[in-house]
What we know:
- By secondary structure, the protein is mainly alpha-helical.
- It has two domains: 1-36; 42-110.
- It is 55% helix and 3% strand.
- It has a two-stranded antiparallel ribbon with strand order 1-2.
- It starts with a helix and ends in an 8-residue tail after the last strand.
- The site of zinc ion has 7 residues, from loops.
- Zinc ion is lined by residues 49, 93, 95, 97, 110, 112, 115.
Amino acid sequence: MKREKQLRKEMAILGATFTTxxxxxxxxxxxxxxDRNDFFLPGVKQGRCIANLERIAHxxxxxxxxxxxxxxxxxxxxxxLDYVEGGAHSLKCPAGGTYSINPVGRSPQCSVPGHExx
Length: 118
Ligand SMILES: [Zn+2]
């Protein structure tokens, strides 16, 4: 009888430990899914990318103003680097798309469908 009680206690501890591990693993998995997996939440990366495009557009506008560039003037990535909020990091699509800075007067674009400024 005493042995059975002891066994139950051990099982309860084991169960609680197992539950804790499962919860931690679940939380970790959720974090990975939320942060990295575009499959479940495609809007997350899309939103980050569009925010990048807006930073690029803003940087282009500042550069154009500073250097009196008119519509159609070509702009290189190097030229806007100093103007981009967040630096070169903002020049990378979180979903792996490629950015086209585009000339003055045209919005910057991402190669991933749906990653576009409104
Ligand atoms: Zn993108």
